[in-house]
Amino acid sequence: MTETLTILYQDEYLLAVNKPSGLLVHRSMIDRHETRFAMQILRDQIGQHVFPIHRLDKPTSGVLVFALSSEVAALMNKQQVAKDSKWHKGYLAVVRGWAPEDIFIDHALKEKLDKIVDKKAQQDKPAQSAQTQIKRLATTELDVKIEGFDKSRYSLVWAEPEQGRKHQIRRHCKHISHPIIGDAKHGRGRHNRYFKEQLNCPRLMLHAAYLQLQHPITAETIVLWAELDDCWQHLLHGFDWQSALPESLQLDSI
Asked: Is 57 designated active site?
């Protein structure tokens, strides 16, 4: 059966999909053995080329937008970086510990370069400004001993990054000592393994749930929401977190 992606929005200029965790946006030397790419799947699905406007990490799921021409892609790229950008993003994440109720993280991030892909890039770039607003939506405490504590605490958070630095939310969560579950690079291995082996959640618990943007041609405001996958839904059900979700993501009982 031919693989397809769930389309959230489509017209003659733009296409938005709900990217599943584990899918690359396009070919990458970092993952040279991977054979599945969102661009290729969409090209086969709709019968025309697509042009990525932004990125989501391979393990991150959620709203991913493409232009259907290079001209529209150029317009959207300018819109993203404009001082009065109409782009607004919201992410759901599960983090270790009880996160602060409401925290604004202003922590510059130095670009992390890949030894293969970025070997010709400037190696001594200064840190770039990065701000993320994080709000705690719900908490849970499990009678599970991990890393020496008799109980283990976790939080469901909503994150709104003001920029799109590489791994911005993941690095900011680590910066405040509340790393995202399933983050192999910035997280905590024992907690990641517990979620994978005991809670059947082997993925990075970061989901690009919401994106608001301005249509580059009509100037219409477009609001996109991406539903949560089975891993997310079962975890939210098990922790009784469904009612803490934004209304547009409220789940029916499983």
From this structure: yes
Rounded to whole angstroms, the Cα distance separating 204 from 181 reads 6
Measuring CA to CA, which residue among 234, 244, 21 is closest to residue 135?
244
Q: What is the tens place of the pLDDT at every residue in 219-248? A: 999 999 999 999 999 999 999 999 999 988
Catalytic residue among 11, 31, 44, 57: 57
- Alpha-carbon distance of 129 to 165, in angstroms, equals 9
Q: What would the two tokens of residue 248 be?
A: 């547009």
Give residue 155's pLDDT. Answer: 98
Residue spans of the domains in the chain: they are 6-245
Q: What is the pTM of this model?
A: 0.91
167: number of Cβ within 10 Å: 18
**Secondary structure in 3-state letters for the chain:** CCCCCEEEEECCCEEEEEECCCCECCCCCCCCCCCCEHHHHHHHHHCCCCEECCCCCCCCEEEEEEECCHHHHHHHHHHHHCCCCCCEEEEEEEEECCCCCEEEEECCECCCCCCCCCCCCCCCCCCECCEEEEEEEEEEEECCCECCECCEEEEEEEEEECCCCCCHHHHHHHHCCCCECCCCCCCCHHHHHHHHHHCCCCCCCEEEEEEEEECCCCCCEEEEECCCCHHHHHHHHHHCCHHHCCHHHCCCCC
Q: Which amino acid is at 57?
A: D
CATH topology of domain 6-245: Pseudouridine synthase (3.30.2350)
